[in-house]
Amino acid sequence: MSHQRALSTAEVPKEPHSVSLKVLRLSRPSLSYQYPLPQDRADPLVPPKAALSYPSDITDDQYILTPLLTLPPAFGSAYVGETFSCTLCANNELSDSQDTRVVSSVRITAEMQTPSQTIPLDLTPADETSSDLGLSPRQSLQKIVRFDLKEEGSHILTVSVNYSETSRSVTDNSAASGKVRSFRKLYQFIAQPCLGVRTKASELPSVEVHEVTEPRSGTNRLLRYALEAQLENVSDGAITLESVSLSPKPPFKSTSINWDNVPDGVEKMDLPILAPQDVWQVAFLIDQQRQDLEGGELLQKSLVKDGRAVLGQLSIEWHSAMGDPGFLSTGWLTTRRR
Fold this sequence. Notes:
The protein is built from two helices and 20 strands.
């Protein structure tokens, strides 16, 4: 008589989890598009309003955008400088008839693996009272995670769920057995650049300043530079530039010569709007300050050692068509080697 071979530990079929995990990205909706028919068509059988997504007497029927909002049909694109947000939902999949099994102490943890490091994430809300008391059948525990995307490349969101499952006796409803179970899921996405930044630093004629100090006097040369930057929208949607600023490194001072710096009494310009592949150029004047003695000494040492001058860092803020904010900061910008 043949006997069935006993299953090893690795071959034992795993019991399905009583808790499931759903991850949904949080993103803003977009305006719905419509494609109206020409008004002067020769075929009158199909009325023009039949092609409209939102027929109304108070809107322009020939305009491509409608007042309707459309939810994203898929994950979409993730861009460097934006905040990645998603909701984590742990659901109790037990039915009402399975009243002998109780799920409690549900915990959700998450971490983000970037191209350079792994970062544990804070979840909101932080209150764990509902999870300690247990999840009733079909009840869920929801958390929201936010992460600022600062690097290009592959990102992996790791979500772990831990919970306790207790089996109760049918006769006296007492705890018969219990176990702690856990599982995790990985979600990978690519962070793409939203803005391409190209910079160029040009040296301007220096300013000679006559210094009168004891025990001697002389002429000191103050360096001047012009920093140009081209900002290209490499995303698939339009963005609006909020601000572009330069944080100079001592002993330099920067002066913006862009749309945000207008004389008193002159009407301010509208914020620049960049469609995909559009390029906007900004510029700054950078002057060396004669009062900063310590910064001047560091500048001279840098010029002697490397032949370059460190000018500062460029900070850029923008928002998308539906108001999603974005922020980008460059590294230290330097001049050409002398």
